[in-house]
Amino acid sequence: MANILKKVSWSSKDDDGGGEVNEATSLVGSRRGSGASVAGKRNSRSRFLSSSGFRTVDLTDGDGISEEILESQEVFTSPRPKEIPHSENLLSQKYESLDYDNCENQLFLEEEHNLGVKRVKFMEAGRWTVCMAIGILTALVACVIDIVIEQLAGLKYKILKQYIDTFTADGGLSVSMVIWAAMNAGIVMVGSILVAFGEPVAAGSGIPQIKCYLNGVKIPHVVRLKTLVVKVLGVICSVAGGLAVGKEGPMIHSGAVIAAGVSQGRSTTLKKDFKVLEYFRRDTEKRDFVSAGAAAGVSAAFGAPVGGVLFSLEEGASFWNQYLTWRIFFASVISTFTLNFVLSWYHNHLGELSYPGLINFGAFESTGIAYYIYEIPLFLIMGVFGGLLGALFNFLNYWLTVLRIRYIHRPAQQVLEAMLVATVTAVVSFTMIYFSNDCQPLGEDKSADYTLQLFCNDGEYNSMATTFFNTPEKSVRSLFHDPPGTYNPVTLGLFCLSYFLVACWTYGLAVSSGVFIPSLLLGAAWGRLFGIFLSYMSKGAWADPGKYALMGAAAQLGGIVRMTLSLTVILVEATGNVSYGLPIMLVLMMAKWVGDFCFEGLYDIHIKLQSVPFMGWEPPATSHSLTASEVMSHPVVCFKRFEQVGRIVDILSDNTANHNGFPVVEEGENVVNVNEQGDADDFGKLRGLMLRSQLIVLLKHKAFMERSDVGEPRHRLTLKDFRDAYPRFPPIQSIHVSEEERECTVDLSSYMNPTPYTVPQEASLHRIFKLFRALGLRHLVVCNGDNRVIGLVTRKDLARYRYHKGGLEEVPLTQT
Amino acid sequence: MANILKKVSWSSKDDDGGGEVNEATSLVGSRRGSGASVAGKRNSRSRFLSSSGFRTVDLTDGDGISEEILESQEVFTSPRPKEIPHSENLLSQKYESLDYDNCENQLFLEEEHNLGVKRVKFMEAGRWTVCMAIGILTALVACVIDIVIEQLAGLKYKILKQYIDTFTADGGLSVSMVIWAAMNAGIVMVGSILVAFGEPVAAGSGIPQIKCYLNGVKIPHVVRLKTLVVKVLGVICSVAGGLAVGKEGPMIHSGAVIAAGVSQGRSTTLKKDFKVLEYFRRDTEKRDFVSAGAAAGVSAAFGAPVGGVLFSLEEGASFWNQYLTWRIFFASVISTFTLNFVLSWYHNHLGELSYPGLINFGAFESTGIAYYIYEIPLFLIMGVFGGLLGALFNFLNYWLTVLRIRYIHRPAQQVLEAMLVATVTAVVSFTMIYFSNDCQPLGEDKSADYTLQLFCNDGEYNSMATTFFNTPEKSVRSLFHDPPGTYNPVTLGLFCLSYFLVACWTYGLAVSSGVFIPSLLLGAAWGRLFGIFLSYMSKGAWADPGKYALMGAAAQLGGIVRMTLSLTVILVEATGNVSYGLPIMLVLMMAKWVGDFCFEGLYDIHIKLQSVPFMGWEPPATSHSLTASEVMSHPVVCFKRFEQVGRIVDILSDNTANHNGFPVVEEGENVVNVNEQGDADDFGKLRGLMLRSQLIVLLKHKAFMERSDVGEPRHRLTLKDFRDAYPRFPPIQSIHVSEEERECTVDLSSYMNPTPYTVPQEASLHRIFKLFRALGLRHLVVCNGDNRVIGLVTRKDLARYRYHKGGLEEVPLTQT
């Protein structure tokens, strides 16, 4: 056990960012009283794997932990606490930011200057080619998932049907149940072990993680090859294991990983560098490709290329650029086309292109009138209901997640929980099948493949069993399209209730799982129920429950995930029918409004529970009253343009202040050391900004000059040196600097960003936020009227302020 | 004639921006050699109304023209030149910028500070309400246009049919032709007079103008009530007059005007202030509503709410904000819903909601397979063809526009040209009808209403006549849906050729006209022809020419306007069929690529020909080598915090340097006057930024203090004073300042923006561009290392640099 735990335990050395640990420059307990008060709750010796797939980092695995922190944590000296406090009202210092603003240092400018027109065109062509590769690969992964799951499901059904047929005759149905439950639990166990012990970040749908990535937060391991492998195998297991999950959400994450991998022209995990696409090895370019990958994932999952683009934009991007959007669109189109081609081939319909996505809702009849105007109020009521039910779902899932963070944080526990859920799901299903006598005649027009006779007469099948045995995708389709009278209302009602609880319990398990399909299925079920009720009330005048099933599905999904624009398009593209576009929009809007009024969206909950410094779309409404000087972190550690190696090493090794950005100030002026708590007036005039990662590369390559050297350094680094180290820069501890070398000097002038963005100290939080968000910054230097550095604003300094009922709320920072 | 000309002639006094004339602070002939060399071409005494609806401003109506400029223009002293040079390689100084960055001065911060949580919510509710109003009103305007055109077309058809029936028997068809041509010319004349003499900016589709507005360029009169009225009446006349135009493009402009009007809670034209929504009286808020209006316009025109949102984003916005997008989406949904409701009511189908947009392509059969994979190469070929044809269209239209700018710049000429085109269109149509003997049996399945028998046998009709007599919308529909064999290939080929030329001639006339429908019709015609050809080649195996008509329409439209994402969605929503989504995308992408390779998009051409300082999506590729100090305008006129009224008035009245932004610098330091050409070191330290408009309001309200006053000014202005003057600030000439008042001082500190964005002088053009574009700035102050002002970057300084084959190109500035 300890061995296994060690395997997944986390040290800063295998982090994507290497030694980069902490964006903020604030000192614990210095300016931030609130931060200090939280320290008591902090448990820095524990590691926990979050249930929603966020991997948390134990900073104190290193040996540089400060006395101060250790003192405040005496209470938690037991190596593994029983309870870990949840923390949706904290921001964690452990997440790093990505830098979506190019560092235009001298090296970069020289490279750009030498770039000919041809090279520019070549690079543009490269971007399109990479997008094409992303689309194709994402679609192929989707095909693999789809085909394997279908094969497994067919196999499972076959075995089970055999047992049921055998035992039903003898009346020993409980044996079938046990076999079924055991089979499901076994398959889920495999998936869960992979996730819990292999790569916890592959749990869940991955959508919150991708949202964070596009927002500019580095979630460790989120775009690694290993994550992709675990995700794909995991989702196959969880879907085949009969859990109430879908394979669509994970496709989005898979697409993003593929994009991050392909665009870099190498795999750091496999230690294989193809020496291509080196120009794209920086956060800005990578982000663009990751959004294309996410879009391609949606496109493959739902056959919705436009929906994919909108998803990428609505959920992720804070940037909008026509060219980029076209590339994203291209990746999406290629993705759905490839999937369509391969699946049509697989199903022997080559040439017909009838499989645009993993899920296909089937065409709604477009002949005749789609809906009447007097149905719109009914749709709106469904929207309200969907919003309420979605909020309830989110609320329950929130508490479950809190409980999981507190009590179920060991991988073994997580695997057991997943197996338990799989068993319960199987048992509940079976019990319901057993008690429902909902026999339906076997017709030609049924879209269900897996029909079970059970206690029904010959020529009939148990519709409840079908609902549970089918993959959720097929069940959704049945609910949309089966003719009126196919489902017994009581059966459907029971199904809704049980599936709601099971789905809510399932999301957040340590398995790869999407929440789209369960939501759609749930909504389709109660929507159809609503349709049946209407039909009953109107004595058959409203005879089409399928239409209401579609609206219910939209309402429920909207109520849970709270997307509107992209979801409308996804649903319209997946149903292949535009005529329901307007009511779907209205339903989604209503569900979003009602849902937002009651409780947050599911993804936002999971992001908040992980204390991610996520930046909203807009600055908090009442943030004009705060100024930069109140918001910023200070004092700041600055470097001189010619800096001593020893001082750099000391500062980088100082774990009490895990800075990642260091302003470079005017030569010859006083440079305040962070430990001296100097007066602001002592700071030098701003000349540039260095990143920790750049300094690490400098130290690693010993780009020093002797004291006696004047002018040129011994050897000057090129951009290639920095790109080769990206994104896994080694920690400072791994770099040996001799006593002699400590006396050397480094010339930072050609490596620093000479024109960092700055704000005056009087600038309002509102203004800083806009600048920061619009440009995707990582550090923003605050200067006084003389252009002297007085502070540094980072993501955490801004994300700390939230608009809460009654006004601005300051969220404390924590180091766990 | 002179009287009429005077009426539309333009002085800076009736400009939206009043005295604000010129963003750039550069002096003619100072730093910009290229600018000076252009001066020879400049004709500052002429006014011309552009054929594409841009109204150009004659700056020299004022009396402050500099000697230098006058000297260089001796050649052009004739009051009205025969020829005006076209200028796609110039940038005009006459266009002002909009300010999409809030001025967070003390007044604003105080207001924000006092805003309670309730008020914030109230304002948010206000935004949604305004969007709803925008949606409803846009839809109602669309309904009015649609219904009036339909009535007029019916009336015209009735009269004409009567004549034709009478005269055909006698063999005197030429009489019918004359009557028809005269009728068309008459109707078009009314529309053209309205546009040419009433409001030239209402010409064309208005899409380039809205693009400019959203980009941040103020096109005078573009969002005025008068423009809306002229636009609506104009488009009715031009469609009813049988021109090759559509009513869809103008709807986008109409929606934008409605949005700008509704959101301000007053009409400056009608001098009616409802004293509501005063908070929204600034460029930022107005822009958000205008994008919602444009989206609502698309939504009403095509029944495509999602397409509307995407149009707004793809064509206009450089900002992306989830909340804003949702509001835009809401306006779009409301718009299509209202239109649907009203039109269904009008057509006595109340409750069925079967009229989602002005144009309805009709449902494509979704039963069976939509297309085979081997058809995709064919679609791609169509895309290539569409791109080529689109480029040819644009190329011809470009030369036409150049000729129009040169020779047809008087309103009377423009009216005559419009009448000529109307006549030619009628004659060409008639001739073609005459010579084609394309008789088709009158069937039940035809979607055409207006059938003409002409020389055909009883029970048959002339299909060519139908194509010409129908509104283009109906013709498109016929081409999509009429069964194979409806159209004779020769007829169709002739129609393509003639319609191509006529449509190309038409776009750019001084009439309100959209290019969407002519493009679709043209494409549908050659697409169908292609389909017929395929069917012939394959001996009937490919029997559905309607599908190819759809692809042709997409290819042609894409080749002309070069949109991809939004156009895909618009076409999918308008056809009501998702199954053609993928091929439509591929076709559009292909058309765009091929088209872009050959020639620019139609809207971009018209924007360039008007010398608008339009900022692209991305900085030019090789722009890293230029720095702020090379790009910026300098020297800059600065003010002190306590500035003398006399100096302010003098500087504002100085027409040689029409500055709009003035840095405010440290008290007590030297402040360089622009006439002294001082050394950069003499500049003061930056303390804030004042706008011309703010200074004007200060002067108007005499917010001075005596020399003897210390501390408080006599009266302090409130934000309301500034909002009341927005957006039509009076020119400085209209403000009388007495000699005594000139000696007074103004305290600028509470009005200036204390935290303007700045860049260091070493920052690259690339970096400045990104900052400028992302935040929608109007002025960007360039400071040196001591935070002293050394220059100012404006839109024109950045838009001047274009990426041209071979590298960076610097476009000269001109004052015309």
Q: What is the distance, rounded to the nearest whole angstrom, between the alpha carbons of the first and last residues of chain A?
A: 24 Å
Note the quaternary state here. Answer: homodimer
Unreliably modeled segments of chain A: 1-83, 669-681
Number of strands of chain A: 18
Largest sheet of chain A: 3 strands, mixed
Major sheet strand order of chain A: 8-10-11
Number of helices of chain A: 29
Q: Per DSSP, what share of the residues of chain A sits in E-state strands of 2 or more residues?
A: 5-15%
Mean pLDDT of chain A: 80
Determine the most extensive contact between two protein chains.
Answer: A-B, 93 and 91 residues
Taken from the alpha-carbon principal axes, the silhouette of chain A is elongated
Structural class of chain A: mainly alpha
Helix content of chain A: 40-55%
Q: Whole-number radius of gyration of chain A? A: 28 Å
Region (Disordered) (chains A, B): 1-45
Transmembrane segments (chains A, B): 128-149, 177-197, 289-311, 323-343, 355-374, 380-403, 415-435, 487-508, 515-536, 548-571, 578-595
InterPro entries (chains A, B): CBS_dom, CBS_dom_sf, CIC-7, Cl-channel/antiporter, Cl-channel_core, ClC
Biased composition (Low complexity) (chains A, B): 26-45
